[in-house]
Design brief:
The complex is a heterodimer.
Chain A (H helix, E strand, L loop, with lengths): L6 E7 L2 H6 L6 E7 L4 H11 L19 E5 L2 E2 L11 H4 L5 E5 L5
Parallel strand pairs in A: 1-5
Antiparallel strand pairs in A: 1-2, 3-4, 3-5
Chain B lengths: L2 E8 L2 E8 L6 E6 L4 E7 L7 E7 L3 E7 L7 E2 L12 E3 L5 E3 L4 E7 L7 E6 L2 E5 L7 E2 L19 E7 L7 E6 L2 E5 L7 E2 L20 E7 L2 E9 L3 E4 L7 E2 L8 E7 L7 E6 L14 E4 L7 E3 L17 E3 L7 E4 L5 E4 L7 E4 L5 E9 L1
Antiparallel strand pairs in B: 1-2, 1-30, 2-3, 4-5, 5-6, 6-7, 8-9, 10-11, 11-12, 12-13, 14-15, 15-16, 16-17, 18-19, 19-20, 20-21, 22-23, 23-24, 24-25, 26-27, 27-28, 28-29
Classes of the chains: A alpha+beta, B mainly beta.
């Protein structure tokens, strides 16, 4: 695990509605962040780079993952990872993305 | 030459319909924000190029969009709707208490004088105001002090769906909430009182109950702001004392259940409703889509049918999906859950469908542009 204070470039894959809301040209965005690559740190960096995404992934009031949002990395479901837990080294190294997915529910 | 711009919110995006004053030929733009639920799109009376839109999703939460060029381009503004203090609990459908939680913005009501001031009615029911063009939002929390713990959701959620700003008295505001009732403030939102006397609801045994009524819509004519019309869950009601007391004006309607309601632009006693079969059957009686117009302020209603489907029609018309322009004769517009937007350029006498195949229409507002 990469629990150091180095700078990291992390790749995040956004669902259609969020990358269009953020006016990204592609579904993948790269984020630079310092310190441990935790779920909270990545989402903080995402919201800092794209303020219109604040409240879209995490609840504004509680800071918790919105109920129908899911997180995946390295073929694993990271949705219930504690916000301050480290993401896999492959994500911290920028070799694998953190994938944000809207849960399949409804039509 | 005046122009008309209709702002349509649907389950899957927003659409903008424009026409000259003849209101016969329409241009359609959209979808804007494709795939998102657009609960409301509305223009500022003080600056018609300033538009606000409530863009929402059960997945991705609330976004408020703002346009400063009449809808050609949009930018997301503030979406931080935080209740003041601990909002406590409200009643749930099953009678238990449930914590208050923000879900979405149902209705936006811009100030008539300041394009940067806009009110937002939200679910779970509360009233917010922005004075910086939607960048930041502040709750007017005294509203929830009106027995908020006894409010409960209507079938669509516990939403504050109607906001009326008195055009004569800037300190007077009205709101309506499903299912809490109607409320009035006479001091700019600092304090509130329930205005539900005279309402009777089958599910509320106490005839004096101040809150709990499922008000679907209230409407006002700006020239007569003390007269209010209400489409309640059941019953069409009227008040001539700013909501202090209500009396029923359902008269000869085929059903007094419904959602949408509007008042004629130039005749304060001319009112429009769209009767719906029942609270269990959200479609027009007999499969005939009829707007009913009273020219007497209620009780005596005439069916308006020319150009509307008179057989096999089973759509609904939701509470925010009817609007009136200010030309003479005034135009009347409404949208359906079947995706049609109907327009009448002659106060309801004749109708045509502007579009027929949009996603389910949640809201319709209209701007009369110089």
């Amino acid at each position: 695990m990469a629990a150091d204070l180095d700078r990291h470039t992390v790749c995040v894959v956004l669902p259609y509605h969020l990358y269009t809301l953020a006016r990204c040209s592609s579904t993948e965005v790269e984020l630079d962040l310092a310190g441990p690559v935790t779920l909270a740190a990545v989402l903080d960096a995402l919201e800092a780079a794209y303020p219109m995404l604040a409240g879209a992934v995490r609840d504004r009031a509680t800071g918790l993952r919105r109920p129908l949002m899911r997180f995946y990395a390295c073929q694993e479901d990271q949705s219930n990872l504690a916000p301050d837990a480290l993401l896999p080294d492959e994500v911290a190294a920028g070799r694998e993305p953190l994938v944000i997915v809207g849960a399949i529910a409804g039509g | 030459m005046p122009r008309i711009r209709i702002l349509v919110g649907t389950r899957k995006g927003a659409f903008i319909l424009t026409s000259d004053a003849a209101r016969r030929d329409w241009q359609v733009s959209g979808p804007h924000f494709g795939g998102w639920e657009i609960f409301h799109v509305v223009g500022s009376p003080a600056n018609p190029e300033r538009l606000y839109a409530s863009q929402t999703s059960s997945w991705f939460g609330q976004v408020i969009q703002r346009s400063d060029d009449g809808g050609a381009t949009w930018n997301p503004v503030g979406n931080d709707f935080r209740y003041v203090g601990d909002p406590g609990t409200h009643l749930h459908y099953d009678g238990t208490s449930k914590p208050w939680a923000f879900k979405r913005v149902w209705h936006l009501e811009p100030s008539p004088t300041d394009p940067d001031t806009v009110y937002a009615g939200v679910e779970d029911a509360a009233l917010f105001r922005s004075t910086d063009g939607g960048q930041s939002w502040q709750e007017l929390p005294a509203l929830r002090e009106q027995q908020g713990a006894k409010w409960m959701p209507g079938a669509g959620g516990m939403c504050l769906h109607t906001i009326l700003l008195d055009p004569v008295n800037p300190n007077r505001l009205y709101v309506a909430i499903s299912a809490a009732g109607a409320f009035r403030s006479d001091d700019g939102g600092a304090s509130w009182r329930p205005i539900n006397r005279g309402l009777h609801s089958q599910y509320i045994p106490d005839p004096e109950a101040e809150v709990g009524h499922c008000v679907h819509r209230i409407a006002m004519h700006p020239a007569r702001p003390n007269t209010l019309f209400m489409q309640k869950h059941w019953d069409v009601m009227r008040s001539d004392d700013a909501g202090d007391s209500w009396f029923e004006v359902s008269g000869n309607l085929p059903s007094d259940f419904g959602f949408a309601m509007a008042v004629h632009a130039h005749e304060p006693d001319t009112v429009y409703v769209v009767p719906i079969q029942s609270d269990s059957e959200h479609y027009p009686p007999e499969g005939k889509l009829r707007v009913y117009r009273s020219r007497a302020g209620g009780n005596a209603w005439d069916a308006l049918t020319d150009g509307l489907p008179q057989q096999h029609c089973y759509v609904n018309v939701l509470r925010d999906a009817m609007a009136i322009d200010s030309l003479d004769p005034c135009g009347v517009y409404f949208g359906t859950t079947g995706g049609q937007v109907y327009a009448s350029p002659d106060a309801g006498d004749h109708w045509q469908a502007i579009v027929r195949d949009l996603p389910a229409v949640l809201s319709v507002s209209v701007q009369t542009l110089p």
